[in-house]
Amino acid sequence: GQQLNQSPQSMFIQEGEDVSMNCTSSSIFNTWLWYKQDPGEGPVLLIALYKAGELTSNGRLTAQFGITRKDSFLNISASIPSDVGIYFCAGLPMNRDDKIIFGKGTRLHILP
Amino acid sequence: DAMVIQNPRYQVTQFGKPVTLSCSQTLNHNVMYWYQQKSSQAPKLLFHYYDKDFNNEADTPDNFQSRRPNTSFCFLDIRSPGLGDAAMYLCATSRDSGGGWTQYFGPGTRLLVL
């Protein structure tokens, strides 16, 4: 079935460092979504990407929809303590828009 | 400002005692979803409603049922909760036009089964 490979699984960084994570698949997706989930809360949408090649920013966050439509990355610049959490990529498959496929998440830790 | 609301945020039930979780939305989205999320895992889709049409995932246990009485509300019924059903339950919504079916999640209900 369709799967998303999200990496890295976890990251330990210093405050102020930039962060990069990505998702890849062997299948084509129509939409890529990036969510952040804090402990005990639901996922919050960070960035939605709808077109191949699209590059979108949201404050210190930047995400891109890969040209092949099979991958996406999320960058966070100048990390701050509140960036700690789990980041999920999610894609809407070409053949079934009503169901999103999740990556396994990237757990971001920020060292003091 | 809350767009997808879930109640209660925490629910404790006893083994085998039916429980109902609720979700409401102010987005007027026509699609509503229920997910189960266990610790350190991605959300797992249980089922969704496209308007009034119910769509069950093939591996969702019969113990889980859902109702959608109107556009704004959707309920998750767990008929006989087992210890393995302890999890975070997430409601999400999307619309079938524009926005690429982007899903918006509620804050979740954490279920504890004693």
Written account of the structure:
The complex is a heterodimer of chains A (about 110) and B (about 110). Chain A is mainly beta and about 110 residues long. Chain A is about 0% helix and about 55% strand. Chain A has no helices and 11 strands. In chain A, the strands form 2 sheets. In chain A, strands 2, 4, 5, 9, 10 and 11 form a 6-stranded mixed beta sheet that branches. In chain A, a hairpin with a 7-residue loop joins β9 and β10 (about 100). Chain A starts with a strand and ends with a strand. Chain B contains no helices and 11 strands. In chain B, the strands form 2 sheets. In chain B, strands 2, 4, 5, 6, 9, 10 and 11 form a 7-stranded mixed beta sheet that branches. A 4-stranded antiparallel beta sheet of chain B has the order 1-3-8-7, with no helix packed on it. The termini of chain B are far apart. The model of chain B has no long low-confidence stretch (mean pLDDT about 95). The chains are: A mainly beta (about 110), B mainly beta (about 110). At the A-B interface, β4, β5 and β9 of A face β5, β9 and β10 of B.
Feature tags:
heterodimer; A: 112 residues; mainly beta; six-stranded mixed beta sheet; five-stranded antiparallel beta sheet; 0% helix; 54% strand; globular; B: 114 residues; seven-stranded mixed beta sheet; four-stranded antiparallel beta sheet; 11 strands
Low-confidence region ranges of chain B: none
Number of helices of chain A: 0
General form of chain B: globular
What does the radius of gyration of chain A come to?
Answer: 13 Å
Fraction in beta strands of chain B: over 45%
Mean pLDDT of chain B: 93
Largest interface: A-B, 25 and 27 residues
Explain the layout of strands and helices.
The complex is a heterodimer of chains A (112) and B (114).
Chain A: E1 5-7, E2 10-14, E3 19-24, E4 29-37, E5 44-49, E6 55-58, E7 61-65, E8 71-76, E9 85-93, E10 101-102, E11 106-111
Parallel strand pairs in A: 2-11
Antiparallel strand pairs in A: 1-3, 3-8, 4-5, 4-9, 6-7, 7-8, 9-10, 9-11
Chain B: E1 4-7, E2 10-13, E3 19-25, E4 31-37, E5 44-50, E6 53-56, E7 64-67, E8 73-78, E9 87-94, E10 104-105, E11 109-113
Parallel strand pairs in B: 2-11
Antiparallel strand pairs in B: 1-3, 3-8, 4-5, 4-9, 5-6, 7-8, 9-10, 9-11
